[in-house]
Amino acid sequence: MSKLEGKVAVITGGTTGIGLATAKRFVDEGAYVFITGRRQAELDKAKAEIGRNVTTVQGDVRNLADLDRLYDIVKAEKGVVDILFANAGIAEHTMLDSITEEHYDRVMGINLKGVVFTVQKALPLMTRGGSIVINASIVGISKGVQSLGIYSASKAGARALIRAWVPDLSARGIRMNAVSPGPTDTPIFESQFGTVERAEMARQAAISATPMKRMGLPEELAAAVFFLASSESSFITGIDLQVDGGMAQV
Length: 250
Ligand SMILES: NC(=O)c1ccc[n+]([C@@H]2O[C@H](COP(=O)([O-])OP(=O)(O)OC[C@H]3O[C@@H](n4cnc5c(N)ncnc54)[C@H](OP(=O)(O)O)[C@@H]3O)[C@@H](O)[C@H]2O)c1
Description:
Layout: E1 8-11, H1 17-28, E2 32-37, H2 40-50, E3 54-58, H3 64-77, E4 83-86, H4 101-122, E5 130-135, H5 149-171, E6 174-181, H6 188-193, H7 196-208, H8 218-229, E7 240-243
Parallel strand pairs: 1-2, 1-4, 2-3, 4-5, 5-6, 6-7
The structure holds NADP nicotinamide-adenine-dinucleotide phosphate.
NADP nicotinamide-adenine-dinucleotide phosphate binds near residues 36 and 184.
């Protein structure tokens, strides 16, 4: 039997990269998925690619009214959430002297505030227990990158939430873990570096800094998220599973 048969999953930022690969994997394993993102065109494309058992909900994880609308739709269509993958995130590079309030608010708003309220607002629907996975990063948790100070703080903060909340969630039958990608080949490289050429240079730098001498595939991250979401990891809560080709491990 498929491992997620009958399960209902919510994935924020499910239109591209790791979120999209995870949505496809969850549906292949029998789940029904709700995916979100800000761009309607990307939502439409993702829906066509996933093909079945998917509802798209446009919204920004910083906006609490958008999160309320997301969970209202989930409640009306399925009445329950079994798996939550708080995945939506951005990376923006700024050196210490150039950090602005706008940069701080944008990165912390999406990567940390977004996670806080995505999780909090899912809980009333997690009535059967379940699994929450946060997409963190080896950057901020195990590695430092000079130009990613605020990104690092947002991801370390997300990891800290897990330690704080696991006792409460355990009492509700909910496990909560992080997956921390190393360099993974997704459009986040284009969005954070601005041009195709600069994204390619960053990819090459990441490859040479990784013991396995390659980037991760979104599907390899999806496999780790699937593990944490499914009963295969039934005695695992509170961890940060680093999927990074060894980059932060050796
Ligand atoms: N790829 C890597 O090397 C890597 C490494 C470490 C950690 N990560 C983490 O992995 C997660 C997924 O990234 P990815 O690499 O798969 O990048 P991606 O392909 O750019 O995916 C990001 C997803 O998040 C959505 N998103 C961004 N801001 C949002 C917002 N405010 N509200 C709702 N959705 C939003 C995007 O859609 P819209 O833009 O349309 O909203 C998209 O669906 C992120 O949290 C990232 O920090 C990635």
